[in-house]
Write a structure and sequence with these properties.
The structure is a single chain. The termini are far apart. The chain contains 18 helices and 22 strands. By secondary structure, the protein is an alpha/beta fold. The chain has three domains: 181 residues, FAD/NAD(P)-binding domain; 96 residues, Orthogonal Bundle (protoporphyrinogen ix oxidase, domain 3), CATH 1.10.3110; 116 residues, Protoporphyrinogen oxidase, mitochondrial, domain 2 (Polyamine Oxidase, Chain A, domain 2, Alpha-Beta Complex), CATH 3.90.660. The protein is globular. The strands form six sheets. A seven-stranded mixed β-sheet has the order 9-8-18-19-20-17-21. The chain is 33% helix and 24% strand. A hairpin with a 2-residue loop joins strand 5 and strand 6.
Amino acid sequence: MDQQTAIIIGAGPAGLTAAFELLERTSIKPVIFEMSSAIGGLSQTVKYKGNRIDIGGHRFFSKSDRVMDWWRERLPIQGSPTGELEISYQNKSKTIPVDRNGPDAEKSDLVMLIRSRLSRIFYLRSFFNYPISLSKETVLNLGIVRMVRIMLSYLKAAAFPIRNERSLEDFLINRFGRELYLTFFKDYTEKVWGAKCTEISAEWGAQRIKGLSITKTILHALRKISAGERNIEQKQTETSLIEQFLYPKHGPGQMWEETARLVLAKGGELHLNSVVERISIVDGEVTSVFIRDTSTNDVTEHKGNYVFSTMPVKELVQSLEGDAVPEDVERVAKGLLYRDFITVGLLLKKLNVRSRRQRIPQEMVPDNWIYIQERDVKIGRLQIFNNWSPYLVKSPDTVWLGLEYFCNIGDELWSMSDEEFKAFAIEELIKIDFIAREDVLDATIIRMPKTYPAYFGTYNEFHVIREHLDQIENLFLIGRNGMHKYNNADHSMLTAMTAVDNIVNGIRTKDNIWQVNTEAEYHEKK
C-alpha cells in the first residue's frame, strides 16, 4: 500500500508543527510548500549584516503545557552549573530546577533564554507602564484632573455598561471607561488597523485583551506585595502582566529552522518559493494541489490524502476549482481584509531618549518594545532587539531597533521607496526625541503583506466560509491567516496539533480546531 501524504501549505509555526506531529504520531509523510524563501512565516528571524530582526516580537510563553513542553524539546532552557536557576516574578524570586548539563548560551546555539519583559507606552512625551498601572508616575504624567476624569468614567462604565457590545469601542469602554479608552486605546488602535474602533468587531477585543481591566490592574498591584504562584508558565497572570518569558538565542525563527531540520531528518519534504496556483475539489475532497515554483514558473500537480492550509483564507477560496464554490462564499472571501506591516531595522551608536520629565537623555532603555501612541508620528511600535536577546545584535557597542508601521498595500506608507521610508522613519524618531541623527549607522526595510487578519470588512459573515470549507473532509485550516483569526504562535501550534489529533482519532468534525483561542485566557497587545 502506498504511503499516505499530507500537503502542508506554509512553513510557519502551524505548518511546521503539523508536519512534525504527523511524523511523530502517524505514518503520513508531510510535504510542505512555502511561498517565500524563508522559514517561519511571521515568526521568522531576518538576518541583516550580522544583526537579526524579530518581526513583530515573539515572546515564548504559553498556558498550554503541551506547547511549553514542545518548545523545550526543540530548544532546551539554558543550563546552570548548580542545577537550578533563579528567576524573578512579580517582585518575588523563585528557584526552578534546570539540567546541570543544559546548554550554555555562550557555547551553544540551541538554547532558550529566560528574558525579562518590559513593555511601556510612550504618550504625551512620557513613559507609562503597559498595562496602565495606578502608579505615582502615571498620576504625574496624566495629571490629577485627567486621573479623576478617568476614574469617574470607569465607575460610570461599571455601573451602566453598554449592554450589547457590537464594536471594539463598546468592548473597550465597558472595561476601561470612555476617558481611558479615549486616552490610551482609540488613537493607537485606529493607527494599527487603519479603521475606526466603531467598525471593528468586539470579538477582536475578546481575543486580544479579554479579562484585563482597571480592576485587574489594581488586583495585580496588590499581588505584588503578597505571595502567589511563581513559575515560568505563570498560569495565574494575564498575559499583558507577565514579567518573564522564554526566548530562542537567535530569535523566533531559530525555533522553526530547527523544527524544519528535524522534519527533513525524519523524512518530510520542504519546498520554498512555492505558490499555490489552484486546488482541485472533487466530490467534496481535495484531489490535487497545483504549485508554481516562483524561481522557474513551472507548475506541478501534487496529490495528497490530507491538506493543511495556512495560506490566507481569501486566497484559498480564490484558488478552489472543481466543485462549485457558492456565490456567498466567494463574496465573503473577497470582502475579507488584512492589515499589512513594515519594519525598519535601524542600527545606532546609541539611543538619545528624552521624555517630558527627563533632563538627561538616556543612551539605552530596558524595554523589549515600546508602544508609540503619539498622534504626530505614524510609527506604531519600537522594538529594542538588544533587550530581546544580546545575540540578535552583532556588536554590543551598537543599538539595534525595529520600527514598526501598520499600513495597507498601495497606501502612502507602502508606496514609499525603501530609501524614502528609511529617511521618514529616522525623522520620526528624531521628532519624538528618541535618537540623534549623527548616531545613525545603517537601516534596512522589511515589508510583510497580510500580517494581521482584520475583524471588519465581511468578517461578521465568516461563518459562511467556515461552514463550506469544513465540509471538505481532508482539508484542515490552521494558523493565523489559515483561519483568519488573530492567533498567537502557540495558538497556531495548537490548531495544528488538534488537526493531527483528529486524524489520529478519526474525528471528522473541525469544531475543536476552531475552538482553540475562542475562550483563551490570555493575549498580548500586538
